[in-house]
Design goal:
four-stranded antiparallel β-sheet, flat, 4 helices, 615 residues, 50 strands, single chain
Length: 615
């Protein structure tokens, strides 16, 4: 009977508890762990009634418990606070969110056109950075990306035909399927490489021209051998009687002897010295002196004939002579400071005299046809210093002796010089300035070329202290370094204007050349070794434009090149749309059999790929 009573009481207590929970009333023990959502359902703690609102002193996180305090009925007159714990919230995984779809997680590896990407699960709860690498999703690869800047050359452009290329993905080496198909079927693609310009040799004269007739010349492309002929090689009209040579190339043959005569008239009509004409032509006929408006000058009317072809200008040309007829020139010194230059103590001057009767004449001494007949110049030697007497400006003692600092001044230019002498002694005579010869560094720091003390404005190679130097208008170009095109049209290897007689490789304007004995070796053609590599040169220049297979005429072998350098590789290379086996950078003509290329098997005969072998 007693047991039945206890069982009934337990059942009633359970029923009352369930009813309390159902109606939002709960009694918990101190430090008990409860769900966050149960906080407002707690009505008593340890049998004491909760008064007031519960206070959460620490919020729970994904991995840590929270803390909540309840104020319960007091003991005596003091309030009592009891604590409970709030259960951990757990991670809010992105993959578990409703409608997560295919976009959940954090991308840790971006996809590309060759590899898939990867995203791992992450907790989305604020303040939590938990990640779950074991829970991930795969991101599909992206499409290949093509543009016209990225392509593989399958046919090099030549002087006579375009080249072609196949689009390649900008991120990988995948080739565009449409281009591959087009190349296999039509040997063309959407990438067209414009054909190159011919690289011509210099014009070579086959039939030299004569005084009044054209000759023939030709030039050839150094790449493809195409030859261009020209039958309009012409000599300047002033070359009558000179050594036959090519001076000018006229695009179309439209000049005739009448035009030759017109050019002669134009050139010689302005000439001021008939002797220059007489150096070319044999004789002067139809001589007739004529009085000009200048009473002291006269003209001649002449007919000129060429000493070689005997062609004549059949009309008269007037020449002004430099010789007086009856009245002498009346000379006066020009007041133009650009013409009359006074001499100084150290530099020569120039006196420029003009004829008073010809005051309106052009007196420009640099005229094309020589000096004006109504002027002449004379050199005025440097005046030298006009020294005043020595003056003592300071006296002092040193080592038991008395010395004087003496200075004298030039009365003309006011330059000074000084000497230190013992007291009572006269200054020593100043030695004369030695005569300048050869290359001399002047006071402005420039090197100039002198002959017997005179500045010589020559342009030539001059010897100096065992070396050879280029002087331009008499001045040494010390900024001329490396391979330099000099005024004679040849390329020299220079250092501060000096020709270095060395044999080596040299760079000029981004290109490489072969130097032999200080000059560009234009005879250098073929393969040359340099700095561990092998390069192809033509006329002494590195042919960086040569790529792919190239035939060396010296050994009759085909080499695989990139930017003019032999590539020591073993692979399949293309040439004019055909494919060949390359071994260590050379076409392997001994290779026969089959080879795997581009995922296919091909028959190979003497190194060339032919038909595909089908399984």
């Amino acid at each position: 009977m007693k047991k039945k009573l206890l069982v009934c009481m337990a059942l009633m207590a359970a029923m009352l508890l369930c009813a309390a929970v159902a109606f939002g009333e709960m009694d918990i023990k101190p430090d008990q762990v409860i769900e966050y959502g149960q906080i407002d359902q707690i009505t008593s703690v340890d049998g004491r009634t909760v008064i007031g609102d519960p206070v959460v002193t620490k919020e729970p996180t994904c991995t840590e418990k929270g803390i909540v305090q309840f104020e319960v009925t007091p003991q005596a007159e003091t309030s009592l606070f009891l604590t409970a714990y709030i259960k951990e919230l757990g991670h809010d995984w992105s993959s578990k969110r409703p409608n997560a779809g295919d976009n959940w997680g954090e991308v840790v590896q971006q996809p590309s056109c060759t590899e898939t990407g990867r995203a791992i699960d992450i907790c989305l709860r604020e303040g939590c950075d938990a990640k779950n690498p074991d829970e991930y999703r795969i991101i599909e690869t992206t499409p290949h990306t093509f543009d016209d800047e990225h392509y593989t050359v399958v046919k090099e452009a030549t002087c006579s035909s375009n080249g072609y290329g196949i689009h390649t993905c900008i991120y990988c080496e995948h080739q565009k399927a449409a281009d591959v198909k087009s190349w296999k079927e039509t040997k063309t693609t959407s990438i067209v490489i414009p054909m190159k310009d011919h690289e011509w040799t210099e014009w070579r004269v086959d039939e030299p021209s004569v005084c009044g007739a054209y000759g023939k010349a030709h030039r050839a492309c150094i790449n493809c051998g195409t030859t261009q002929w020209l039958d309009t090689v012409h000599r300047s009209v002033l070359d009558h009687g000179d050594t036959l040579s090519i001076d000018e190339v006229i695009p179309q043959p439209n000049a005739k002897w009448d035009e030759e005569k017109s050019k002669l008239e134009k050139e010689f009509k302005n000439a001021t010295n008939l002797n220059a004409a007489l150096n070319v032509f044999d004789d002067v006929v139809d001589y007739e002196p004529v009085m000009d408006w200048l009473v002291d000058c006269y003209t001649r009317k002449v007919t000129l004939s060429c000493k070689y072809c005997h062609g004549k200008v059949h009309h008269d040309v007037t020449y002004t002579m430099v010789y007086p007829l009856t009245v002498a020139h009346v000379w006066t010194l020009s007041a133009n400071p650009e013409e009359t230059i006074p001499a100084t103590c150290t530099t020569d001057g120039t006196n420029y005299y003009i004829c008073e009767k010809d005051a309106d004449h052009d007196h420009n001494p640099s005229t094309k046809y020589g000096k004006d007949p109504a002027f002449y110049t004379e050199k005025v030697p440097a005046l030298g210093h006009d020294w005043l007497d020595w003056e003592v400006v300071e006296e002092y003692k040193k080592d038991g002796k008395e010395y004087q600092l003496m200075i004298r001044e030039c009365a003309r230019c006011h330059n000074t010089e000084n000497q230190v002498v013992e007291k009572g002694e006269d200054p020593a005579p100043v030695p004369p300035t030695p005569m300048k010869n050869g290359l001399v560094m002047d006071e402005d720091g420039k090197w100039r070329y002198y002959e017997n003390g005179e500045f010589d404005k020559k342009t030539a190679i001059v010897p100096f202290e065992g070396g050879e130097f280029w002087v331009l208008d008499g001045v040494l170009p010390t900024n001329a370094n490396g391979l330099t095109i000099c005024p004679d049209g040849k390329a020299y290897f220079l250092s501060q204007g000096q020709i270095l007689r060395v044999s080596q490789f040299a760079e000029y304007q981004g290109e490489w050349f072969i130097i032999k004995n200080g000059m560009l070796d234009e005879s250098a053609n073929g393969l040359y070794d340099y700095d561990g590599g092998t390069f192809v040169f033509a006329a002494g220049k590195l042919r960086k434009d040569v790529n792919g297979l190239w035939l060396n005429p010296k050994d009759n072998k085909w080499y695989f090149l990139a930017n003019g350098q032999v590539q020591k590789v073993s692979q399949v290379a293309s040439y004019n749309g055909e494919f060949f086996v390359v071994k260590d950078g050379v076409l392997d003509t001994n290779y026969n059999g089959t080879i795997e290329y581009d995922g296919k098997t091909f028959n190979v005969v003497n190194g060339q790929l032919y038909d595909e072998v089908w399984p």
